[in-house]
Amino acid sequence: MAKDKAIFTCTECGGTSPRWLGKCPSCGAWNTLVESVVEGGNGGAGKNRMSASSYAGLAQAQAVTPLAAIEAQDVARTASGIEELDRVLGGGVVEGGVVLIGGDPGIGKSTLLLQAMDALHRTGMPTLYVTGEESGAQVALRSRRLGLDHSQVNVLAEIQLEKILATVEATQPAVVVIDSIQTVYSDQLTSAPGSVAQVRECAAHLTRAAKSTGISMILVGHVTKEGALAGPRVLEHMVDTVLYFEGDTHSSFRLVRAIKNRFGAVNEIGVFAMTERGLKGVTNPSAIFLSQHSEPVPGSCVLVTLEGTRPMLVEIQALVDSSGPAPRRLSVGLDRDRLAMLLAVLHRHAGVACADQDVFVNAVGGVRISEPAADLAVMLSITSSLRGKALPKGFIAFGEVGLAGEVRPAPRGQERLKEAAKLGFSVAVVPKANAPKKPIEGLEIHAVERVEEAMNIVRGLG
Q: Which superkingdom does the taxonomy of this entry point to (predicted)?
């Protein structure tokens, strides 16, 4: 009897190698190659034959058609009943769409999805909740804790792919939740549940079922210690929408961020508060990211950031303190390398030296800010802490800062300013290109082109 041939598969990217290596040749990750047996007993031929037969239905020849001749219309959406979740999804659940949602254990993925399934079912849509990590009794207990009395959501405790697909075909739900994709396995493969081959194959079958039947699929994915989705990264390319849960498990607030969405805007976020009755949407998220100071304090500057289509106010805090021979540069919620660059620009073009000082920068509320429009607020907060003098009450700032000391405009500046004025802020320092043509009631706007101009204006205001 021929011996089964073994290959080594990377748990990060799904790449294969005929022998074990300490470093994956495809993605460069260390100690990620895991041994698996090739199906079919004839090298890779058995696996290739199995895959070809599995996707034979997709290989039918299609006529070549010009774009102008293809009839297209906007996709129909169904509101989930949870406004913040609908915002992240782009307006609601799309028929035949596949959503992948990931997050740390215990952050609230199952809670949010169970609430969404119950809300959808109450609107008349048949739903199916497939749980592979818990029993049906555990899911029922959670629903009672969440106050979902007399919930009619159908629950299936199953991890075998073929049985799940058979149940979906028999019950014909409109929305299916798979919690989680790492627990599902197929009889066609000999590898264990959660392996790269199993996760990839099961996700492919579920995606094909969603596209062919019009059923919306929501897959729950585990995350690694680094915060990335566990299993092969190909999952992110196979699905239509990828959502990430963010936030500290010790805090009551959660952020759901869309990093990919074929049916809506990316980098859109939904803000939730964890309560005894589950996750509740936060209508005014700016209140979370602003500290409640009775009087202005040194080292604090409010930034108007843009998350998808939503402007939000976030407080940037800085602490500059005397240091020893090796000054520290630490940032929480902001890029540390960009902080070092801003300190160099501050020294060269504004004459503010922090070379012998420890500099700590924090974005309040655990939010992560990646856009460069935060540069000006970071520099002003650092200067405020170094001088020991607070910025004026009701002060906001935003703008990107270049290495030459210029202040560049931020996208959608008018919306940022209107959001700040709506929340009662009265003074703003913004790039000259973002200055509105018509004055905004209650908001005094100072337009600047260079960093030194911004520093002089702040000194004059103080």
A: Bacteria
